[in-house]
Each structure stands twice: as C-alpha cells, then as structure tokens.
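pasting for ref. prot 1 ->
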Amino acid sequence: MSEHGRMNRRQDHRQWTSLPDEQDMPDRPGRSGRPDQSGRQDQGTRERLLAAAAEVFAEHGYNAATVREICRRAGANVAAVNYHFGGKDNLYAAMLDHYMRTCQAAFPLDVGVTPDSPPRERLRAFVHGLVQRILGGGDDPVSQAHGKLVSLELIDPTPACDGLLREHIAPVNDLLADILRGLLGPAADDPDVLRTCLLAIFGHISFHYNGRAAIVHFYGHEELTPEVLHRIAEGVTRFTLGGIMAMSGTAACQATGPPTA
C-alpha cells in the first residue's frame, strides 16, 4: 500500500474514532472547568440529540436517518451519539422511551380518580389523559415528530417496537381493560367483547391524529385548543359508554341464544 493510502486510512480512522468535543465529555482529572458545569453541558447535549433525532427520524425514516445529520442539527460532535447512547439503534430506542415517559408524566390517565372510583369516572379520566397524550402537542414540530414515529412503529415495527409495547403501551392497555371490566360486568369474560371495546376506544382516539388530513379535508381545519381536546374526549367517552351498553346486551343475548318465535 502506498504511503498516501496509509495516511488516508489513518485520517479516516481518526475521523470515526475521535472523541466528542469538550462540551460532550464530562470533566476528567486535569481538565479545566468545574464538574457541575460540565455535567450540565453533558445533559444539554444529550437532550439536543434526543430532540434532533426525533425530527431526523420522522423526516427520513429509521433506515435513511444518519447519525451525522442528527449531530449536525443538535450542534454536537459526530461521535456524541456513540458517547451518549452507544449508537444509532440505542439512540432511536432512547428517543422513543424519553418521549413516552415525558407524556406519561405530563398527562397521567388517572387524574382525580383512584382504582376504587366508579368505572365511568375512571373511563372519563383515562380518555381525557390519552387524548392529551396523543393530541396535546398541537403543532409543535418535535411533538409531531414523536407522534409520527410512534404511529410508524406500530405500522412498520423496528427492533425498538418490542420495548415500546412492553414498557409503555401494555400498561395502558391493561389499565383500560381493568376499567372496561368494571363497566362490562360479566360480558367482559367474553374475550371478543373486551377486545372490541379496547380497539374501538384506541382507534377512535388515534384517528384524530393518524387521520388528521382526512378530518381537515371533510370538516375543515380546527386548532387543537384545550377546549377542542376536551370536546373530543367527552365525545369519545359518551360514545364509548353507549357502545359498552350495546356490547353488554349483545353478550347477554349470545349467552341465552337467539330469540324464539
């Protein structure tokens, strides 16, 4: 190999193995600056990477998104993703996890109720909280990017989907199933009835996000103000309660057989 070729390979190696710059690295012995200041810078870089990752992954998709573009938008050294997350795959999973935990903290599904509250009150609190989680970000680009990525993950899963389902979506599903059992009574023993009710509620709410273009086309654009979100949640709750009554009656009719002449 020529000396020129060896020099190019050494340059390429340094480019991909270089450490993050000072703002991305915690203080070490002999490094100037105070540790607490470095810690804040370190956390700030991590948060910028998470926000930039949401936008880049949403724009380009999981496969086409590049670490270099994410770091460019975050204003971080190209090695920062490896330093903070251990690679693109882990960054993507961490971004989804961070978003879901942020939503859970901001919009709990049990505001004003306890497990012993009447099931109707628990359902209303659940629906209001879930509407806020899915639609409460409004036109904020980072929130929109996160919502888009969660929807895409459920349509075309990546390896991060298992963790998303297990850690974040399964507990929500279990909570709603518990609420529905209190409303359906014995009809909840029929797995088809319980599943139909679960999917109807999740589908009704999520269409307000996934079907936004169709809603705007047929009914006009409407800002997702707190008043509008409240109206959507109340409509879903009322519609759901009526459907639960119907499903309970259907289950009872099936248990006793078809009516006789």
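and prot 2 ->
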Amino acid sequence: MKIKDILFEIKKYDFYKPFHITNSISTSKDNIEITLITDTGITGKGEASSSFRVNGENVSALYNSRDQIIQLIKGMDVTNYRKIFNQIDKIGRTSPSLKAGVQFAVLDALSNYLNFPVYKLLGGEKDHVVTDKTISIGTLEETLEEAEDLSKKGFRYVKMKVGEDIKSDIERLTAVNEKFNFEGFIVDANMGYSVKEAITFSDAMYRESVPINVFEQPVHYSDFDGLKVIRYASRYPVGADETIKTKYDALRLIKDDCVDFINIKLMKSGVSDALSIIEISRTANVSLMIGCMSESAIGVNQSVQLAAGTGAFAYCDLDSHLLLKECGEYKFKTVGDKLYPH
C-alpha cells in the first residue's frame, strides 16, 4: 500500500469568543487539513495547526511545502510507517505541526487498511480519556460565568490561563475555587511571569488552598534555570510546555531536574518525537500531560488516539475543538469531559 499523493486544504475556523492568553488574543484559526492517498485508494486524514508564537510557523509557508513532502515519501509503503516517520522527521524543526499531521495521516491510512483503530495500533491502553476545558484570560465576571457553565456541564478539571496581571490572576483563581467544586486546576501562565512573580503566585494559591495539579510554563521558554528555581520553591508541580518541543528538549529538562510535568503537544513534536518523549519521561519517572494548539476535531482526534493508545498522560487538555465553531466530530465522540476514540 504505497503513497500516491498528498493533498493540503486550508480551512478557517472561528472561535466562539476571543481566546485570550498571555500577550495573545485569537478570534480565528487557519488549519491545514491533510489527505494522504495510497495506490489502493485507501486514504488517511491528518491536520496541522500551525503556531508562529510557539513554533515560528506560517500557515502559507506550510501549505507551500506540499511538493517537498510528497517528494520525501511518495512510493513508500504505509505498512512500513516507521520509515516514513524517519523521512518526515527531516522537516520536524521547521514545520513540526505539518510533521504531526502527515505522520498521523500515515497511521490513519494504515488503520483504515487494517480496519483497526489508531489508538489500538498504539497500544489500546484506554478506551477513553478525560479532558479539562480552558478558561482564557478575562475579567472576574467573565471568568466566573465560564466556570459556572463548565461546572454545570460536568467538567471536573479546568485549565486557567494567567500571566498578564498577577493580582487579577490570584483574584480569579481564588474566586472560582471558592464558588465551584472542581477537582483541580491546571494553571498556565504561557511564559508570562518572572521567577519572582511565579513564586509569589504559587504561595498565594497555596495559602488559599487552591488545588493546582500543574503550574504550567510560568516563565520564558528559554529559562531552564528559572523553571528549576520555581520547581524547588513552588508548592505545586511545575510543568513545561513552550520549552519542550523535541525529545532533545525533554532530555535536557529531565537531566537538569527542571520540571515535574512535561506537556506533549503533537503540533510541537509530531507523532515520532511524542512517542520518544513518552518513553524518556516514563524512564525518568516524570509525569506527562497532553495538550493542543487550535486544532479542529480532526486534529484533536490525533491526540485522543495517542492518549488513549499509550495511556501515558495524567491529564489531558484536549478541548480546542470545543472552543471553535466547526462541523461535528471526527473519529471520536465527546460525552461531557470524556473523549472516546473509535
């Protein structure tokens, strides 16, 4: 079953409401839907959701990479998917989201050929995963309104975006925790704090008994030493997101004792590096969460399949399809905070 062609299509998605994280507000997102075509007529689907902020990517440049991609993999047998992964790894530094989408499309084609779900190809550890849902930066009133909606819908975990105003952040988190009975929070500063601010925030949350499961990326992605200082000073587990893209980043973070958690995102690492990071982290006893960029259901499906298949993640932040105005679901179903692959 050899690769015959690959098609790219840019699709625009609108957010239900502006999505506000540290120093960034998004109202829409252009993603690349990928269709891999084999000589048997069997196809595979994937998606690339680019990020200039995290990866330095541009969607137009990625779209124009189609000829390069097909030259790398045309004629290769999908049943030998690891060989194809090795070829696609060559674009991993410059186009990681495209690497993710193409690599998953290969697995999806193999899955369709075998009539066997991708998550079972990856181990079949779980039959569903539980996701949080994100509350972006906003006023206290907006935050409480969103938290009430999530509480009514049965979400047990909430991801809170912080990092622009520490006073407001403390007020928002404290108010949500006092009013609602969420089991825990993932708090994501998206590189917005200084080391001192991060420690101050952590201490304030501890005094208010806020159950934070992961304090994610408090400082700039290049500040490995800062992450380590915060980790040793914080009452909460510290995680890396923007800092960790490749398996080599994971090795450095673990070697330098910088984090308790690593946030894997396929759009940063692709499938191949994500699998390597999982094994590196398991060996070093470092915990894992899995996140998303701004993928539609097609892209979130990729991470749901990985998470269910490997069973490697303590927390899943796979909610971007719930934030976008889009059509339906793709190869998984959503029931409350549970995502079921099939």
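The CA atoms of residues 232 and 258 lie 9 Å apart.
The mean pLDDT is 96.
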